[in-house]
Amino acid sequence: MTNMPPSIVAVERATAASRAALVAGVAIVLVAASLPFWGESSWMREFVEIACYFIFAMMWNLLAGYGGMVSIGQQAFFGFGGYVMLMLGNFAGVNPFIAIPLGALAAGLVAIPVSFVAFRLSGGYFAIGTWVIAEVFRLSFANVSAVGGGSGTTLTALRGIDKATRESTTYWMALACVVAAVVLVYLFLRSKRGLALLAIRDNEVAAESQGIPVARMKLAVYVVAAFGAGLAGALYFVGNLRISPDAAFSVNWTAFAIFMVVIGGIGRIEGPLVGALIFWALNKFLSDYGTWYLLGLGLLAILVTLFFKQGLWGHAQQRWGWSLFPTQRKLLDISPSGSTFLRERP
């Protein structure tokens, strides 16, 4: 009987594409951080818009794509974060840029009592219920005369700050929020809690039988998604300088997020990024066509769901193995007589 040498196993946590993406990402962020010194103000405004789209879509993807909780009412926290930022700036004398994370924190906190109502529902009822909750938020702020009622109001706290300083600071805040959102979501999904979240998405009963605190995990993800949505809302209305209930709590925000995630690839970190860039480009160059533009968005979504069921990035990842943010681990047999690949773990 021949004695087989023991296998030497190593865990591969990154891919060649992810290592290249890390180097390229750091370089892009460093160059982007210098944009206010040499770029035009219109470029900064466009980036802030893309950043808000991306952050909001990323949070929806975390909630639905990874957590399995399909919500069409995340605009409730988007608008709430924006209004809290405005009230802190206009009425409490807080610097609006400091009020951005405070508005996001308020959105995360208000998500806790909201979850007591939302989590009594499941499936399609949960989705519709979150939309109803968002409408309650919209009607509530529309009846508060201090913030302009239904017509909204202007962010007056920025009047003492010159335009160049305001635009560059808003831009840097947006860049920092994008980097933080990507890094934190990536680290979370690579942790044990991220694995637990995927188990809950696939089968709640089986996950709970394995000792995973399902209710606590779902609440945590719901609060984090609300925090991110509030961050996107506060950032957006600092750049927009005006807020109204119809703009802040419009269901279009969640519809756009769903579009971006589906186009890019649901359940992938790269998906919202690809989707946000595509949506921004379509919105930038085709929005003047009115109803034809909306029909084009719908047609594109239908084509992608028919021919690229995993989204555009999902298709590229499936065909060419591209993974800029790998959340899975590969077990490799690196012994001289062993194979190079044993199995892949989530």
Task: List the defining traits of the structure above.
single chain; 346 residues; mainly alpha; ABC transporter involved in vitamin B12 uptake, BtuC; 5 strands
- Largest beta-sheet characterization: 3 strands, antiparallel
Beginning-to-end CA distance, first to last residue: 36 Å
Quickly count the helices: 15
Highest CATH level, the class: Mainly Alpha
- The total count of strands amounts to 5
Q: How does the overall form come out from the CA principal axes?
A: globular
- Order of adjacent strands in the largest pleated sheet: 1-4-5
Given as residue ranges, the uncertain stretches (5+ residues, pLDDT < 50) are 341-345
Number of domains: 1
Please estimate the helix content: 55-70%
The CATH topology is what?
A: ABC transporter involved in vitamin B12 uptake, BtuC
Q: How would you classify the helix and strand content by structural class?
A: mainly alpha
Mean pLDDT across the residues is 87
Rg, Å, rounded? 22 Å
Helices and strands, in order, run as EHHHHHHEHHHHEHHHHHEE
Can you tell me about this structure?
This protein has 346 residues and is mainly α. It has one domain (9-345): ABC transporter involved in vitamin B12 uptake, BtuC. It is built from 15 helices and five strands. The protein has helices spanning 16-33, 35-38, 41-66, 75-91, 96-118, 124-142, 163-189, 192-202, 204-209, 214-240, 245-248, 252-264, 270-286, 291-307, 311-320, and strands at residues 9-12, 153-154, 242-243, 329-333, 343-345. It has a three-stranded antiparallel sheet with strand order 1-4-5, with no helix packed on it. Helix 3 packs antiparallel against helix 10, helix 3 crosses helix 12 (252-264) and helix 4 (75-91) runs antiparallel to helix 5 (96-118). The longest helix has 27 residues, at 163-189. The two termini are 36 Å apart. One of its GO terms (cellular component) is plasma membrane. It comes from Variovorax gossypii.
